[in-house]
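# nightly structure sweep
# worker-07 picked up a monomer target from the shared queue
# config: single-sequence mode, recycle default, output format = structure tokens
# input follows
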Amino acid sequence: MRYHCNMKWRILIPSLSVLFATIAITIWWFWEVPLVSPLSAAPVFHFLSNSSNPNTAGKVVYGFVPYWNINKTLIRDELTHLSYFSLTIGADGRLDKDVADPGFQRLQSDAFLELANQMTDSNRHVELVVSQFYADDIEAFLASPTAQSTFIESLDAVLLAYPFNGLNLDIEYPGSPSLRVRQQLTQFVKDLNQHLDTKYSHVQLSIDMYASAPTTSQIWDVAAIGQEVDYIVVMAYDFHRRSSPQVGPVAPLFGGNQDWDMDISQQIQAFLKVVPSQKILLGVPFYGYEWQTDSSEAQANTYPDTGSTASFMRVQELLTRKDELKLEEKWNEAALSPYLVYTEDNENYVVYYDNSRSLSYKLDFVNQLDLGGIAIWALGYEGNFNELWDVISEKLDAAS
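# output follows
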């Protein structure tokens, strides 16, 4: 009897194994696996205790409107800060008021006044960007107490004349500055912050920094300046540029040290070591770049002087010509970034940009790290297309 039972079990067990295996394969084949965000296992989150509880509430949606895009800009419900770009700080501290200067001209335009009124009517912020981009001007300005006093006087005049309740500093020094220049900028930011706090209780102060600021020799002392400002706008784009010898993502979330030099996650982690997360606004691009290339590969070589800006509007226009251009939509998994390849006049072109999917991952990143919000460069590049704003509305609960 025991022999017969053993024989039955020897026959039954393999049969059951085959049956269970068949059922398992069938379930696996037809079961729709839930989509998991690629951010969930990313090492950048491991050093944060609250990374499993993303915070979507009270986020800043800061939008730069460059003077050349004023007539293309629409005020969206999700926008919390509108920032006019820009007035130039002269080496002598004067804010350039040359009537021929387009930044000053457009500031006085009816088109900008209409945008500003839409923001103030709904109790939202309107800010002014003041900028310097030339090393000689920056060094002369920071070395001169007289020039800085002149700047304060010029600034006061502008703040009295226009409904600004925020000031953004965009001082970008090309190359590596001396320690003295770096210290002078920090002191200038401290003095400016003190002046604003004393005279204007309603005016916020923010500053723009390259994504590489904490890890390379730049003009910004991130930790010291971070104590003085309300926000740091991390310009987390232009990882590849018009002049890049190879194509690649403009704002790669990941993939640094493997496919390109650095990525957003590495740089933001460096910021978070010295600046509170709520003070960081992640810069996101509403543009990309397109290049003529020697192939249609994801990192093809570019031809010199063929790079150009590809606004989100430009990308949409290319997509409408999909058949004509033999255009293919592709995805760079390492960067979490889309790109296009197309052919025109028998030449290859590659376009890297951000779409709703890649932007969605960046907003997940903002929420997971509990950053202060995002800063968009630039309003107007999206045109009348709602795709990017829809994902912002879905992912972020904008600050009131």
